[in-house]
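Researcher: Last one for today. Full complex below.
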Amino acid sequence: MAADTSAPDPDSGSNGSLHEGPGLPDDFPHAARLEQAGVTSLEHLREVESLEELTGIGPAYANDIERALEELGESEGGGTTSTGETTEKRSSPLSSNGASEDSAEGPATHQSIDIPEGPIKETLSFETYPADRYKHDELGFEADEVLDLLSNMLLQRRFENRCRQMYQRQKISGFLHLYIGQEAVSTGSVNAINLGDDSIITAYRDHGMGLAMGMDPEACMAELFGKATGCSKGKGGSMHFFDAERKMMGGHAIVGAHLPLGAGIAFAEKFKGTDNVCLCFFGDGAMHQGAFREACNLAGIYELPIVFVCENNQYAMGTAVDRAFSKPDLYKHGYNFDFPCSLASGMDVFSVNQAVRDHVETYARQDQPSMLEVRTYRYQGHSITDPAEYRAEGELDQRQSEDAINRLQDYILTHDLATEADIEEIDEEAKQRVKNAIDAANDAPFPDESALYDDVYTQEDYPFIA
Amino acid sequence: MATLQFREALREAMTEEMERDDDIFLIGEEVAEYDGAYKVSKGMLDQFGHDRVIDSPISELGFAGLGIGAAMNGLRPIVEFMTFNFSFVAFDQVINNAPNMRYMSGGQFEVPIVFRGPNGAAGQLGATHSNSTEALYSNFPGLKVVSPSIPDDGKGLLKTAIRDDDPVVFLESELMYGLKDEVSEADDYTIPIGEARVAREGEDVTIVAHSKSYHIAMDAAEQLEAKGYEAEVIDPRTIKPLDMETIVESVVKTNRLVVIDESNPFASVASEVTHQVQDRAFDYLDAPILRVTAPDTPAPYAPNLMDAYMPGADETVDKCLRVLYAQ
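Model: Here's the assembly. Have a good evening.
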């Protein structure tokens, strides 16, 4: 699949001049991002009048860079994006940030209580990834890989459609949250990471992500049927898909509760010294939980290789996003943690792919947590029993006119990557795979009753009490 | 044998395990630069550095969850709660994420994590800082709950807890951190989880008591001895799994049981022991099982009220005499 890590900058350089020079120090903050913006030496960096005008350098990064320059004794550099306290040095509890090691007497606050003359002004900038901007070849996708993207998105949609039917036929019970409409988010994201090395953790609307990660549709459908052959042996259900081999770290069903887990998964990668990152997906509703704030803050102070991806599908159950947020521009919430933040269309697989690549390669792999809001839309209700009467009239039709699968099919035809017949065949294949999954799930046995006691503890002779 | 404070025994356990296994780290509020709120981790930052002894902000939900995620991804975290009263803001992580992960992933993910810190009342701290959590955490399958009463058990059981591949809630006590006692110096000293310790043998009445209550039980046993009765004192050491075999064996011998448990009484460890003994040894009981617990009230502040609130040796002696039909 497309694993081109040198993703082109979407907003092709406001500053393209390449300076010769000794280069930026390896540990210079955001060196990769600076180099992408055309700044390849300290000398050049000092000449930059306004750091924030560099592509991809938001105010948070500008602060980091300014601090680093100051530490190098070069505090005269311009480009201030904020004044006052926000430029003060921050120390990390981890040794990777040397601040607390400087002092033999222990930690010391670097924060000033001399309040500057105000007002304190900040200039914010957020990268965007709108639909219809990106071309497959620029992203490094070959024609057949584009068809793979389509195939995967169709597999998700056909799978989910049949899940709804299987629920109606009472083959599937419990809660069932369908992913229809959001397929570009999963497929675009998974194709931006190193599958098997990088981790993904997500919420309870997890079928699409599992299938995008290459989980076997038969194991997924069997799980929904509660069968022993299910991906969680019939003991997780719809909201708890896991695949350790692919580092699919779960579907998690308590809203927001998996965000700290994502931070922990990323923490483990950093601790072990790998280059792996964690993509942590969550819905707009999860951002109300304290867990969001705590996870972001910990990721920030420990400098964890994580991207917080808010999959904003417009509704937290039945509550529209703008009814629930004091600040409905969700991507801006990451700014409170000094994260680079971006906003991407979730209705174009290429936009998602470019956005996630940038966040993974530019930020997460440099141990800089970041936040990406992906705007998408779920066509079904919150769960299978929700008729979604809270939508405005015509809203669904309007959103469906932006459909990511239709968009990709149109793209394929426009760019002569395949014929309508080819697309039809891909769709038929997807339908057949789902049908096979249903047949296999039907034929599979339910778990043996003794499985009730399996996997509660590692210890096999744990004394269960009757 | 070395004579160590409880906190030193716990520190030895963590230190030895961290020397043995590079995947273990300690995280919590004030564990590093401050040397531990109760000095359990004193000096560990100097030995292991910031990468493995990690200060967290006041963010229990966050760092408990971070520990669980790290455990799912191959590490073995020790998460210190400054007290288990603060674990309640991380409750969802401790009860919903840590113990369920293995089960609902069909065995694909394990969570080898220890949540440790002081539990129970610790003087006049008022209601919010005096909760006993052992019954609560024991209610959730997938968690193991350990609550030692002496430094030697603290060391041996904490080492085992750290090695356990499942999440362990390890309950200590502020009031016992300074308690000095002999601790084994044996290489690689571990005590299995799930085995009670018969601290004192006797024929007349069985007293089951864990953590601080164990020391009350030993006091009461001495007072009973002066009155001519031999009490058998059993410290379960582990609440879950609970070593019912040892308890039942003792009751079969003494035919009488008193359980001390400083928790509130409703649905407590004492309730569970009582239920299981009547289930397994009904015919051997010569008297109703009595409990010595905190009353069903929040913990108070005033010193006289706190004295009345906590279980004591006098009350224990009194209840033992009642099951002995000696008063």
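Chain B touches chain A through 51 residues (CB under 8 Å). The CA atoms of residues 99 and 115 of chain B lie 12 Å apart.
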